[in-house]
Amino acid sequence: MASNGNIHVVTKADPPFLMHRGESFVRERLPEGAHVIYPNPPLPALPDAREAIRRAIDHPLGQDPLDAQLARGDIRRVTIAFDDVSLPLPRMRRPDVRQLVMEVLLDKLDRAGVTDVHLICAICLHRRITPREMNYMLGPDLFRRFFPDRLYNHDAEDPDGNVHLGTTEKGEIVEINRRAAESDLLLYVNINLVTMDGGHKSVPVGLATYRSVRHHHNAHTMLHDSSYMDPPASLFHRSCERMGAIVAKHVKVFTVETTLNGDLFDPTLAFLQKREHAWGARDRLMYSAMKTALNLAPFPLRRKLYNALPAPYGLTGVHAGDTGAVHERTLVNVDRQQNVKVDRQYDVVLVGLPSIGPYNVNSILNPILVQCLSAGYFFNFYRGRPLARRGGVMIVHHPVQEAFNTLHHPSYKDFYDECLPQTRDPKELEHRFEKRYAESDRYRDLYRNSYAYHGVHPFYMWYWGAHGMAHFGKVIAVQPQSRQACRRIGFEPAASLAEALEMAKAVVGPDPSIAYYHCPPVLMCDLR
After folding, report:
1. DSSP string covering 391-454
2. Rounded to a whole number, what is the largest CA-CA distance in the chain?
3. Nearest Cα residue to 349 out of 316, 382, 303
4. Which residue ranges form the domains of the chain, and what is each CATH number?
5. pTM of this prediction?
6. What dihedral do alpha carbons 39, 41, 46, 50 form, nearest 10°?
7. What band does 268 get if pLDDT is binned at 50, 70 and 90?
8. How far is the C-alpha of 394 from the C-alpha of 475, rounded, in Å?
9. Which long-range contacts (CB under 8 A, 24 or more apart) does 106-111 make?
């Protein structure tokens, strides 16, 4: 087997390669000479997660230990904010690391006699998480103790529940949750799944309003950003940092950030984390059995089966204290798990797209989210330069469907039906439609009182995917169920992978260099 670390060069003798395809899998043979880029194996987990969390909180970076801060007696009102169900992906086997962190924090608050404590899920403009999801994430004991009066979702549209803190030197309005802003201490509990997460993206975004978020979630920033996944080079992160500086002037923030390894799949699905050359008879049998069961099941049951087994992640690091200092250490840990050195760009990049994304948890990966997950997330998994050269081709293996969850994504369906038939241009969409969707009374009500994403959310996802779409000469979907949906989001349909590769040659030339991005788990292609 010809290989170089994480990069395997395909030969005629190779077996077919596994690719995720929505709520199922396929195996495809790749052309000889194509490169398969594999993620790193899961890092070893810390031997005692609870002790690691206690140690981090007792030895924070850039701040006094939490016990010492509480001992002064001037902290009586505390808010603990935490990341929502958009990460980790897939969901974590119980106990969730957020539960472990909160148990340590609450033990310290209890011993210090602090009783005015609220727990707020920092959903920003995401959908509210359900009581069942909160119970799973935080555990039944914390859920019973705090829900519903002191455990709830942030409401970005509550006119009385948010407060204006100031404006940055760039004119960016900073508004965050009033309860958090008026607390004596704000504790933020984060899971840093990818390098885009955490840092000053936590409080100024997770607890923000549309009036704040629109300053960086806009067509200009998203189209001109080098990569959201490369914080030092990211316009988005510079905006968050400016907003974070305003927050720091008004709110005392103690950040706790955690990192997880790449152990995504239950041992039952061990074949999903092995290189194909290492598959044994049991792996081949499990692959065939799982694929058959998933393909025969009706769609709702297939989705349930696909997401049935939570991930046995291991904690690889935890740091606490000053947001900036903590995040520097966090990013080092994320890089240890995800960074893969790649020394060239490719004409064609192939991805097997799973229906596991941050905005369709317990839902459907609708066509707009297919565009965002592939041309947004997967395209942006790089440092320095994109994996595909400018004008290259992305091939996406996914059964693109014209299907929407109307509970979670009502504005997405309307965006798809009303806006995209008129234009796919992000700047025109922003100019003509964004304000109306963002300020719609109907979408506001569904966001606040049901479980819908904010009315503006499909615009932001589209802008981000448009960054990758502008980079590629063509994006091709293999075997989409809806050719109309495929074309509406700007993709070209192909009946097979072989046909997609032939279509790609018409764009990049007759002898293209090809890379298969073998994900999940996530890997970050380092082309610096």
Report:
1. EEEEEEE----S---TTT-HHHHHIIIIITTT---HHHHIIIIIHHHHT-HHHHHHHHHSSPPP
2. 72
3. 382
4. 49-260 (3.40.50.11440), 342-526 (3.90.226.30)
5. 0.97
6. 60
7. confident
8. 5
9. 106/80, 106/142, 108/57, 108/66, 108/67, 108/70, 109/70, 109/78
